[in-house]
Design brief:
Elements: H1 3-10, H2 16-32, H3 40-52, H4 63-81, H5 88-104, H6 107-113, H7 120-141, H8 146-158, H9 163-181, H10 185-206, H11 209-212, H12 217-233, H13 245-248, H14 250-259, H15 263-278, H16 296-314, E1 326-328, E2 331-333, H17 344-365, H18 368-382, H19 393-398, H20 402-422, H21 430-436, H22 441-451, H23 456-464, H24 470-481, H25 485-501, H26 543-571, H27 580-596
Antiparallel strand pairs: 1-2
Helix pairs in contact: 2-3, 2-4, 3-4, 3-5, 4-5, 4-7, 7-9, 8-9, 8-10, 9-12, 12-15, 14-15, 15-17, 16-17, 17-18, 17-20, 20-22, 20-24, 22-25, 23-26, 24-27, 25-26, 26-27
């Protein structure tokens, strides 16, 4: 900025109170979407002077407050200028003010200078204002702000952990997150190509063990957030090497999980690896931006990740993971003294990571014996005390998280089918052999039904929900069930025995309440469904046999009721998709039950 412009910007107001009044007036105007009593040029000068206030010698001691107001007003001004719901003349006025502020007065250089401010609030507001303008400028011109890019690249290449680096990483993460949410793939590519080399250098600087173990926790957590965004961006299109950093540095991230001095950092690293394996990075905010089929390069990355994780499992990585006690509003508790009382988030993240990696490895290598060994290592990690039935661990662990439970069940089904096809289990009793590895799909399905109290309405909620993969899992399982009814009835016996021998209170049963009231669909009375006919236990049967019989009765009745309900909704065109194939599969269950009687 020239000296003349600097003098003009600095001399608009002689007193801090006058500057505060003008900034407050402008802020109110941006909130109410009205025009202020200034020209666009004057408005820009007021904002600029406000942001610079904390740099100047202010006798009134409120320079920090003025800078915070000025930075906040920048964000509000950008919001008004980019709004499509306002009158064109109002948006044009604020666009002109921003043009003066950022092009004529070079406000971006002022913002990035504030990244290093020791006041964390000002540093964060500066990063947020800078990121907002970068987004606005990108959408208008497709060009990354040079001043912001240079500041971030310098920090990525050489800055130590601290306010400057934190502000740069946060602002880049914010820009990527907003672009990914809006599905602006072309603009994401522009940003990533601009920062590809410097991001890779940043990660290489901070991921070595001797660095991350002593790094600032805030900086490292921001780096994990950036890694997740980079991984999420690869789900839409792959064009930069930095998008693969989570997969490339998987071994180091596994070390973070097991050796980080801060437990919550370990948990965040575990969640990042889990989401990478599931191809669900950014699942909390990335909506509608995924490709239905992963690019070939991404498939190779996931395979590499799976190999790294399983190599760690073979080297006893699981035994080195610290799991905190379960957390409650009243504190922590270690229920029963075993893993089931541990932190469920960490246990589910690590378990689903391993299960998905085993599934990926089996698809690529068809190594059934290896897969069973990895699963046994996982089950050993999950339990310190004896569990009656290994397959029961699925719902004991995942029943509080429906989406993870369905992902785990689907993956374990795929593992079982691949093992069965490529390296057959013991022909004398394949069900027993599958149970020994904890991957008997019949047992898993029955435990899933048991976890929802055999309530067909909950299954219907799963079917129409976009939050789980239950439809895909159910169809795959029912197709397998057609070929192995005998195995299903044997599994009913095993699950019945488990229910009898174990504490039934451990099962994560739900209330059975449905998300939607389907009673108005003229469904026949659930109590009269024919699924329970003929299955009464004789007085000579043991309690275990009665429980096994009851499990079969409840399972068939649940699926029969689900078939009736889906059929009624389908007939009334109230079902969200064509369910004919699903209805046929459910009907086949009833036929098998009738033939077995």
């Amino acid at each position: 900025m020239t000296n003349a412009k600097m003098a003009a910007a600095s001399g608009v107001f002689r007193t801090a109170s006058g500057l505060r009044d003008s900034l407050s007036e402008i802020y109110k105007c941006t909130l109410n979407a009205t025009l202020p009593g200034h020209s666009a040029e004057e408005l820009a000068r007021v904002i600029f002077r406000g942001v610079r206030a904390q740099e100047e010698d202010d006798r009134h001691g409120n320079d920090t407050e003025l800078s915070c107001i000025g930075l906040t007003v920048i964000g509000r001004t950008i919001s008004i200028a980019t709004s499509t719901a306002l009158k064109p003349d109002l948006a044009s006025f604020y666009q002109l003010a921003l043009q003066v502020l950022f092009e004529d007065m070079d406000a971006m250089s002022l913002l990035v200078a504030n990244f290093s401010c020791q006041d964390k609030f000002i540093s964060h507001l500066a990063a947020k204002s800078a990121a907002s303008w970068v987004l606005c400028h990108l959408r208008m011109s497709g060009v990354v702000s040079p001043a912001w890019r240079q500041a971030c690249e310098r920090a990525f290449l050489s800055s130590a952990a601290g306010p400057t680096l934190d502000a740069c990483v946060w602002s880049l993460s914010y820009v990527l997150k907003m672009l990914l949410k809006d599905n602006c793939q072309d603009v994401v590519k522009v940003v990533l190509m601009a920062f590809d080399a410097s991001i890779s250098a940043l990660v290489s600087r901070f991921l070595p063990a001797d660095v991350w173990q002593h790094a600032d926790v805030d900086t490292f957590c921001l780096l994990l957030d950036l890694l997740e965004l980079l991984t999420a961006s690869s789900e839409t299109c792959a064009y930069a090497s930095s998008q693969k950093l989570t997969h490339v540095h998987a071994a180091t991230l596994m070390a973070v999980v097991s050796r980080s001095p801060q437990y919550f950092v370990s948990k965040r690293a575990a969640l990042l690896l889990k989401r990478a394996a599931l191809r669900k990075a950014g699942e909390d905010w990335l909506v509608g931006a995924r490709l239905p089929v992963p690019p070939t390069a991404l498939a190779a990355d996931v395979t590499s990740l799976a190999r790294t994780v399983l190599d760690g499992v073979a080297a006893d990585w699981l035994l080195s993971i610290r799991v905190a006690s379960a957390s409650f509003f009243g504190g922590t508790s270690d229920i029963g003294g075993g893993r089931q009382g541990g932190d469920g988030v960490m246990l589910r993240a690590v378990s689903l990571l391993v299960i998905k990696c085993v599934e990926r490895n089996v698809r690529v290598t068809s190594a059934g014996a290896e897969a069973r060994g990895y699963l046994r290592s996982l089950w050993s990690f999950l339990r310190k005390t004896q569990v009656v039935h290994t397959c029961h661990l699925l719902t004991l662990l995942f029943s509080e998280q429906d989406d993870d439970m369905m992902e785990a069940a689907k993956a374990l089904l795929a593992i079982f089918l691949h093992i069965r096809e490529n390296s057959p289990l013991d022909d004398s009793d394949p069900g027993e052999a599958a149970c020994a590895s904890g991957c008997n799909p019949h047992c898993h399905f029955l435990f899933v039904l048991q976890s929802v109290a055999f309530d067909h309405r909950v299954l219907l909620d799963f079917l129409i929900s976009m939050e789980t993969c239950f439809l895909e899992y159910l169809v795959r399982y029912l197709k397998y069930l057609r070929t192995d009814w005998r195995g299903f009835t044997a599994a009913c016996r095993r699950v019945g025995e488990t229910t009898t021998e174990s504490d039934s209170g451990q099962v994560g049963t739900r209330s059975g309440r449905s998300l939607v009231d389907y009673d108005s669909s003229d469904e026949s009375d659930p109590d009269t469904v024919e699924g329970s006919r003929g299955w009464t236990a004789s007085g000579g049967k043991t309690q275990t046999n009665m429980a096994a019989c009851q499990t079969l009765v409840q399972a068939v009745a649940c699926l029969s009721k689900l078939r009736l309900l889906v059929s009624n909704l389908q007939a009334k065109k109230m079902f969200p998709y064509n369910a004919e194939s699903l209805i046929k599969l459910l009907t086949h269950v009833e036929k098998c039950e009738g033939q077995s009687r």
